[in-house]
Amino acid sequence: MKPKQESTLAWYVVHTRPKCEHIAASLMAGLEGVETYCPRIRFQKNTRRGKVWFVEALFPSYFFARFVPLESLRAVNYSQNVIKVVDFGDTLTPVPDAAIEELKAEMKDVEICEVEVGVKVGDTVELTEGPMRGMKGIVNAMLTGVERVRILLEFLGRENAVEVPLSKILTEHQPRSVLAAK
Predict the structure, then answer these.
(1) Whole-angstrom Cα distance, residue 19 to residue 125?
(2) CB environment 70-92: b (16+ within 10 A), e (fewer)
(3) Angle subtended at Cα 143 by Cα 140 and Cα 149, rounded to the nearest 5 degrees
(4) Do 137 and 159 belong together in one domain?
(5) Which residues fall in a coiled-coil region (predicted)?
(6) How many CB atoms lie within 10 A of CB 33?
(7) Which of 32, 117, 118, 122 has the highest Cβ tally under 10 A?
(8) Diameter over CA atoms, the chain
(9) pLDDT tens, 56-70?
């Protein structure tokens, strides 16, 4: 059964293949009568190989497209990397314009918003280098100077305070949760 088609211009949610949101959105933007919005976040994360910049979709495997379904649904559904336009019970459900405007305002009217995933006292972190690599501890203090933190590690049956550079730890914070907390 095919989704019921509307004849008014509205925003809809488009489901894509994983990690292909921005590609599908940019290809779809070339279609006549179709506008796309694919908010993404850029963040730096400490990994086992050092600090690395990542760019990911704010909504993994989804983006927004504005079109008239009666005219463009087929072209949108068959665009490269698109799985389908999200529907509920074979009915396309438009996203209110106000919701998209609010999202754009939160993203500061840019498609890629930079998010800082920081570390604070009380966070659980993992060491990425040295003889204690892989051990987890709790941040006890943020130290001034060369971006260092004091971590409490349980080692040999007791807690030990260790000072390490911020670049040598992994945090459990996720960039999407940091963005939501703002």
Answers:
(1) 27
(2) eebbeebeebebbeebebeeeeb
(3) 50
(4) yes
(5) none
(6) 12
(7) 117
(8) 69
(9) 999 999 999 999 999
Structure tokens at 91: 């009915």
- Beta strand pairing status for 10-16 and 35-37? unpaired
Provide the CA 1 distance to its chain's centre, in angstroms.
33
Highest mean pLDDT among 49-58, 76-85, 112-121: 76-85
106 and 129 part of one domain = no
Q: Which of 115, 144, 173 is the last residue of a domain?
A: 115
Mean pLDDT of the chain: 85
CB 66 within 8 A of CB 104: no
Q: Of the ranges 10-24, 137-151, 168-182, which one carries the lowest mean pLDDT score?
A: 168-182
Instruction: Quote the CA–CA distance of 173 and 134 in Å, as a whole number.
Output: 17
Instruction: Determine the structural domain holding residue 69 and report its residue range.
Output: 10-115
Amino acid letter at 47? Answer: T
Amino acid at 157: G
pLDDT exceeds cutoff 60 at 178: no
Domain count, the chain: 2
